[in-house]
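Morning!

This is the sequence you dropped in the shared folder:
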Amino acid sequence: MLTEKQKDRLVNREKYVGDRALHQTDIKVRRRLVAFLKELQDIRFIVDHLPDRQLTRILEPVHLDDLYSFSETIALKLGIVPIQTVPFKPEAIEAVHRVTTSRIEGLTLTTGEGSEDISSATISFVREPTEVEAMIYQLTQHHITSMKRLSMPYIESVDTPLGDLLARPEERYPGFTPRIDSLSPNTKRGEKEGVH
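The structure's back. Tokens below.
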């Protein structure tokens, strides 16, 4: 754990300019950070393989918030720029900075119905992403897809008869109540049969 003095030196660096203690604090915390980053793969391995009932005694929602913030901070510190798919080329990506301005003088837009003054413009400054940026984009997209399963209902296809799912919901999802969201009839177009 960092001491209060170390935290103060890190947060209020200007107070300690020229102080040898600040230099020593920087060295110590850098070493701690390097050691922590080396441990991340072991931590992931432990979380992947320790039984859930043991993990739930340790893990708390605040840990998730800390990890989200940590990921965002790493991306910002690495200077990652926004990446987007290229318009009309969904298989390609580009690094982009977008700005908008309403400081426009003497520019008009001519259409078949006449001319009108431009009131605002949005400009994209684009370039090819670096190899590192492209890799981080792919990692981020994969992570977003995984996290969407927690924030948006994911439909899992199962090979269990409907009657069994409704009769014994506790076996699959303890504490949940079943609700039928949709039924799809197995009929050809034009045929009308009731669902029983």
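Headline: Residues 2 and 29 are 8 Å apart (CA to CA).

More detail when I'm at my desk.
O.
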